[in-house]
């Protein structure tokens, strides 16, 4: 019994330190930006997309495995995580540089917050402040789960409902808003089996992901990894079937034009976010903060840390 208790404690080992200060968080942000590289550079594009993927792969285990959620522990043996191993290595290095004063779990959330806020176009309406509202205190899990619980990219609207809305505890508005994270980066063969950006501005966190639903013709394609949707132009942009299922009844059509809308009403939120980026930001921030705190107690706002 004692051995089991000790193992349980180790599995949820905490690397968060009460000595963490606002200055430490600023240092971590600076180190993350050094790794990310100049905004609008190819280096930033690659890092930003993979940083968001790593963050999601970490938080998406909540409700699917024991002690899942934002715990800084992603299974490196899973092929679905192959593309984010470089980012994991960078985070581990930052964690060592900072002598473990901030947990890897916090660095995953902070890294995602940095690339999102830094890639919002200058002059555009901003309806969120993920860095100013950053919460810290997530413990690292010592033993990672081997199970891959990522949503199936070829799935239907039910996949989104089960893997995002229900399991992560999001409203319909928050679910559609969180899917907009696909605006940054793109699909990678090693993760999903597909490749290509999700909109025409993959290095920018903007609402083009949503406007593209309305302005582009999308054609259903059959790839080696299953069904996906490709823009009927020369942009090379794609959509997972789970993304397109937010807008239309994908099982009944081969193009989005003239296709029956998704009866779940998610298309209404797509239209709203396409016309109102600030509202999207507001609902995205709500979803981001909620899933980044699932299963964690005692998170501390960065504003309450010692300077």
UniProtKB/TrEMBL annotation:
The signal peptide annotation in the UniProt record is 1-21
Q: Which GO terms describe its molecular function?
A: heme binding; metal ion binding; peroxidase activity
Q: One Pfam family, short name please?
A: peroxidase
- Which residues are in the Plant heme peroxidase family profile domain? 100-307
Lineage: superkingdom: Eukaryota
Keyword Heme in record: yes
GO biological process terms, alphabetically, are: cellular response to oxidative stress; hydrogen peroxide catabolic process; response to reactive oxygen species
Is Membrane one of the keywords?
Answer: no
- Residue ranges spanning the membrane: these are none
Q: Which UniProt keywords apply?
A: Heme, Iron, Metal-binding, Oxidoreductase, Peroxidase, Signal
Show the InterPro entries listed in the entry.
Ccp1-like, Haem_peroxidase, Haem_peroxidase_sf, Peroxidase_I, Peroxidases_heam-ligand_BS
What family does this chain come from, according to its entry? Belongs to the peroxidase family.
Q: Return the protein name.
A: Plant heme peroxidase family profile domain-containing protein
């Amino acid at each position: 019994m004692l051995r089991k208790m000790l193992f349980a404690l180790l599995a949820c080992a905490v690397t968060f330190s009460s000595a963490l200060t606002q200055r430490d968080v600023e240092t971590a942000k600076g180190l993350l930006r050094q790794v990310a590289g100049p905004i609008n550079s190819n280096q930033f594009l690659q890092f930003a997309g993979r940083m968001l993927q790593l963050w999601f792969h970490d938080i998406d285990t909540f409700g699917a495995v024991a002690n899942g959620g934002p715990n800084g522990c992603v299974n490196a043996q899973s092929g679905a995580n192959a593309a984010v191993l470089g980012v994991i290595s960078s985070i581990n290095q930052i964690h060592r540089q900072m002598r473990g004063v901030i947990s890897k779990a916090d660095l995953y959330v902070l890294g995602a917050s940095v690339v999102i806020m830094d890639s919002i176009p200058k002059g555009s309406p901003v309806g969120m402040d993920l860095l100013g509202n950053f919460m810290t205190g997530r413990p690292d899990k010592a033993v990672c789960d081997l199970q891959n619980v990522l949503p199936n990219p070829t799935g239907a609207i039910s996949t989104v409902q089960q893997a995002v809305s229900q399991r992560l505890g999001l409203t319909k508005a928050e679910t559609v808003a969180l899917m907009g994270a696909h605006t940054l980066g793109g699909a990678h063969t090693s993760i999903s089996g597909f490749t290509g950006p999700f909109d025409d501005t993959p290095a920018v966190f903007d609402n083009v992901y949503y406007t593209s639903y309305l302005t582009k013709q999308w054609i259903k394609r059959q790839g080696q990894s299953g069904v996906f949707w490709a823009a009927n132009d020369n942009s090379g942009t794609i959509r997972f079937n789970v993304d397109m299922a937010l807008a239309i009844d994908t099982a009944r059509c081969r193009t989005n034009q003239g296709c029956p809308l998704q009866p779940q009403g998610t298309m209404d939120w797509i239209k709203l976010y396409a016309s109102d980026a600030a509202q999207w930001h507001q609902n995205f921030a709500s979803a981001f903060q909620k899933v980044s705190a699932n299963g964690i107690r005692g998170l501390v706002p960065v504003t309450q840390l010692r300077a």
